[in-house]
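call fold target=5-formyltetrahydrofolate cyclo-ligase
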Amino acid sequence: MIEQIAAKQALRQEMRRRRKAMPPEEKAAGEQRLCRRFLESSYYRNCRQLFCFVALPQEPETRGILRQALADGKIVAVPRCLPERRMAFHQLNREVPLEQQLLSGSFGVAEPQETLPVITPQPEQVPLCLVPGLAFDRKGGRLGYGAGYYDRFLAAYPFLLKIGCALTPFLTDCVPTEPTDQRLDGIATESSLEVWNG
């Protein structure tokens, strides 16, 4: 267990270093390709509920995905942090501009207004969740920021299709994991969308 924690800390440091070193134009070009690849996928087309993070500046930008999903008539929800390291997803209103529905919340993350309705994944809606992280592998491993918000949420909905969202420099051979870490079903990058469980 101690070895796993140390390995995670070392990998977090390495991935943060890579984030700082990535040229802005390279990041922007990769984000555009990632967004297009995801929106053209059958997984996106088939889902009726999309649970998606609102990106921090260092994460792959997701606002384009959110806007397109709303325009496509999907049920779109973004997370808000709650006490005890839990999250609630609030449904966005397609009639209101995206930025008008977001406020600066926990950890400087843009969060939905509390007045927006809270929704949960429903199996009949073929729900899909785009998941952020610092590092991913192709076996479903994900290195988050260490607080466990997504692990707790994902554990409650085993039927939810869980797809990591990252640029390829943040893929690694093997992410160290612990029993409470939730495995993902796939990974979306600028070069591919791979789903190995779903």
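return ok
The chain is about 30% helix and 25% strand. The mean pLDDT is 94.
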